[in-house]
């Protein structure tokens, strides 16, 4: 069973749900989507009965968590989601794996009282409950801290307008030590025996040490082969404390040498805004199908012939709103890449993005990813 929710769902996902008659909650967003695709819409009571029967639920957005909280309150899944959504509770639960990891929970009222010198920089300041990179700040010096506090004051009303409390939480924040190493994202699920099944692994590419944007992720045969076994062991160890079953998740970690340190486990979904679809373009894997049908990818076959190719997801976030961009030149952007697998245009006032691009790039041409990563996108704006 699947809960569709705003702000975005891809046609690729809707096609699968329609073709396979997957049970979908009949909320406003799903009914709107059903105008374009025939969907098997179920009422609240039917969805609850379906969950009682098969114990599997997938959400396309964390906005859907409100329905789970309100309708499955007598199920263990509520506790599991709550722990993963609250970064402080999550850190505490995994403390046996990382006994020396430093973090501190603070309230919004305490933000102005942060003693920069006492919390050894660099460190991360972010909401205790959050989504994407909302309100995530890397603090290297007192100027960074002052700028972060100012931005939080300016942005918090917009966060609360566009996202429910189940996504961004109340006014709690976490200070935690900076995690060194290369960042990776993992789309995976724990099956009905609690075994982790990895469906895709991405490298999160950054423009600088202070960059916290979600502009570029890519996956490749080399990444899968290098990290699949290590990440399976990591997820197995973590589940000694998490105790998850039939549970999809989008996991973010950093790897520094032999150390794998989690950033967060995002519950009940894979990469947000249908970005998990990059697994389909790269490897022919519909991640939702693999979860719902309890399937495991045979990467030994899937990866054949994919040497030295990067499959990327590129988020086209809008430039500074103070400089208007009346129209985005998608054709010019399209021609900036070696091979575009799909260009998704997004026209949604609640999302500060122009869309997404899925690309295929030979490793030797990786500079095209570096270029778009560092671009402010003004060059693609018509005024």
Summary tags:
single chain, 383 residues, alpha+beta, 3 domains, eight-stranded antiparallel β-sheet, 14 helices, globular
Q: What's a concise summary of this model?
A:
With 383 residues, this protein is an alpha+beta fold. The protein folds into three domains: 2-82, no CATH class; 87-177, Dna Ligase, domain 1 (2-Layer Sandwich); 182-382, 2-Layer Sandwich (D-amino Acid Aminotransferase, Chain A, domain 1). The chain contains 14 helices and 18 strands.
Number of domains: 3
Number of helices: 14
Shape: globular
Question: The CATH topology of the largest domain is what?
Answer: D-amino Acid Aminotransferase, Chain A, domain 1
- Cα end-to-end separation: 44 Å
Q: Kindly report the average pLDDT value.
A: 91
Second CATH tier, the architecture of the largest domain: 2-Layer Sandwich
Main sheet overview: 8 strands, antiparallel
Rg is 20 Å
Read across the widest sheet, the strand sequence of neighbours is: 13-12-9-10-11-14-17-16
Helix content: 25-40%
Class computed from helices, strands and strand pairing: alpha+beta
* CATH classification class of the largest domain: Alpha Beta
Using DSSP, what is the number of strands?
A: 18
Low-confidence stretches: none
- CATH H-level name of the largest domain... which superfamily? ATP-grasp fold, B domain
Strand residues, percent: 25-35%
Describe this structure in words.
The chain folds into 3 domains: 2-82, no CATH class; 87-177, Dna Ligase, domain 1, CATH 3.30.1490; 182-382, D-amino Acid Aminotransferase, Chain A, domain 1 (2-Layer Sandwich), CATH 3.30.470.20. It is 33% helix and 26% strand. It has helices at residues 11-19, 28-33, 44-54, 65-71, 77-85, 87-93, 142-162, 165-168, 221-242, 278-283, 287-292, 299-302, 330-334, 367-374, and strands at residues 2-3, 23-25, 40-42, 58-59, 103-107, 123-127, 137-139, 172-177, 182-190, 196-205, 216-219, 247-256, 259-267, 309-317, 327-328, 340-345, 353-362, 381-382. Strands 13-12-9-10-11-14-17-16 form an 8-stranded antiparallel β-sheet. A 4-stranded antiparallel β-sheet has the order 5-8-6-7, with helices on both faces. The protein has a two-stranded parallel sheet with strand order 1-4. Strand 9 and strand 10 (196-205) form a beta hairpin. Helix 5 crosses helix 6. The N and C termini lie far apart (44 Å).
